[in-house]
UniProtKB/TrEMBL annotation:
Pfam families the record matches: PP2C (PF00481)
Organism for this UniProt entry: Rhamnella rubrinervis
SMART domains, per database record: PP2C_SIG (SM00331), PP2Cc (SM00332)
Chain ranges passing through the membrane: none
Keywords assigned: Hydrolase, Magnesium, Manganese, Metal-binding, Protein phosphatase
Record protein name field: protein-serine/threonine phosphatase
């Protein structure tokens, strides 16, 4: 979901009373221009206590220049900017058991995937891999998937090897990631150490240079920050999500009080073989992920990955705004992840908590590139003496 700039301002106000001056001034500029206002401060003859707000021509010109920088409408410029951008990957994570009796979340952070996989995966560009597994019915399924993640996602799926990321490569990459989720699901069916009533949601994020691939089965969520705006890179697979509800009901499943077959709060997960139909049958509960891909540009600042304990009490835009303010203060993704978790606890989440923050550029690069907003000047009122002298000049005295 892409949020309009005005909605961003509203979200910032909800999250924190002190709204960043840069954002507020920009939205005021845009709103003034859209209404063809002129900035000045004069008294209205019909209402002496009322002051009209107008924008002078010079300020209007400055707004036009400012908007042309912020909202680039030239696709060639966008492509050129994208081609020059190279993400500088750094990340941090934080977890908390929350009010639960056990910790069922697991996560993976690999900032240098080539170094981790060695000869198995050679990539000439920066590469990274991140994942969150939110277990239910016990921690065993999530722990098992984490232990075997490298095998499922990179060894057993024939990850495409190429120095060029073209359409063929991207199609093969998406196919291999879908296959990895299904292989992991089948492995849980055969794993005697994991109960058939145990399962886990899964969300992965793979970075190859400027290319980001996010795959999700369940209600974990990935949110991209694009110039301060939250861009959701995954769907929450819950019974209340209309496309999932329709899919479940078409396959003979039912939604009872927001739960799949009255038992599970998600419609996609790995494991949970007590709730799945025999192999080869179309089951309402599936492990196939939704996959989204995007080519990062210099407008993309960071990615947040979190389990549903975060998103149950916090909107995507609120989380993006919180992390963005944190990076401005201390430039530490680890601390930002901690602040996200602590905020969710403050908002009385009822679940385990896991948050990962992946930065693509330093705050100095992000915020120094932003043009300064136009400065507002208040019109000076003339003293009585000056008004008298001016009147005399105009009357030729």
């Amino acid at each position: 979901m892409i949020v309009s700039p005005n909605m961003v301002a509203d979200a910032e106000i909800i999250c924190q009373q002190s709204v960043p001056v840069l954002d507020m001034k920009y939205h005021l500029c845009v709103a003034a221009k859209e209404r063809n206002l002129q900035i000045d401060v004069t008294s209205s003859p019909s209402s002496p206590g009322f002051r009209e707000v107008r924008v002078t021509e010079s300020v209007a010109a400055e707004i036009s220049r400012f908007e042309s920088v912020v909202c680039c409408s030239d696709p060639d410029n966008v492509m050129e900017s994208s081609a020059k951008f190279a993400p500088k990957i750094r990340s941090g994570s934080y977890t908390d058991i929350g009010p639960r009796d056990s910790m069922d979340d697991e996560h993976i952070i690999i900032d240098d995937l080539s170094a981790c996989l060695g000869s198995l995966f050679k990539c000439p560009m920066p590469s990274a891999f991140y994942a969150v597994f939110d277990g239910h019915g016990g921690p065993e399924a999530a722990a098992y998937i984490k232990r075997n993640a490298m095998r499922f996602f990179f060894e057993d799926v024939n990850l495409p090897q190429s120095t060029d990321i073209d359409s063929v490569f991207l199609k093969e990459l998406e196919s291999s990631h879908r296959k990895a989720f299904l292989l992991a699901d089948l492995a849980l069916a055969d794993e005697c150490s994991v109960s058939t009533s145990c399962g886990t949601t899964a969300l992965t994020a793979l970075l190859l240079g400027r290319h980001l691939l996010v795959a999700n089965a369940g209600d974990c969520r990935a949110v991209l920050c694009r110039k301060g705006v939250a861009v959701e890179m995954s769907h929450d697979h819950r019974p209340t999500y209309l496309p999932e509800r329709r899919r479940v009901e078409e396959l003979g499943g039912c939604i009872d009080d927001g739960y799949l077959n009255g038992y599970l709060s998600v419609t996609r997960a790995l494991g949970d073989w007590d709730l799945k139909l025999p192999l080869g049958s179309s089951s309402p509960l599936i492990a196939e992920p939704d996959v989204q891909q995007v080519m990062l540009t210099e407008d993309d600042e960071f990615l947040i990955i979190g389990c549903d304990g975060i998103w149950d009490v916090m909107s995507s835009q609120c989380a993006v705004s919180l992390v963005r303010r944190g990076l401005r203060r201390h430039d530490d993704p680890q601390q930002c992840a901690r602040e996200l978790v602590l905020e969710a606890l403050r908002l009385n989440t009822s679940d385990n908590l896991t948050a990962i923050v992946i930065c693509f550029a330093s705050p100095s690069q992000v915020f120094e590139s932003c043009p300064q907003p136009p400065r507002w000047r208040r019109a000076c009122s003339l003293s009585e003496e000056a008004q008298s002298r001016l009147k005399s000049l105009l009357e030729g005295n």
